[in-house]
Amino acid sequence: MINVIAILCLTFFLNSEVIATALQHDSIQSIKTGNHLFRTSCSTCHSIHHENIGPMLASITKKKSRTWLTRFIRNSQDVIASGDTYANLLYKNYNHVMPSFTELSDDDIHDILNYLESNSASVINEMAMDNEIMQNSNPEILYGRQLFRQQCASCH
Question: Which pairs from 52-56 meet CB under 8 Å and 24+ separation?
Answer without folding.
Answer: 52/154, 53/94, 53/96, 54/90, 54/94, 54/96, 54/98, 55/90, 55/93, 55/94
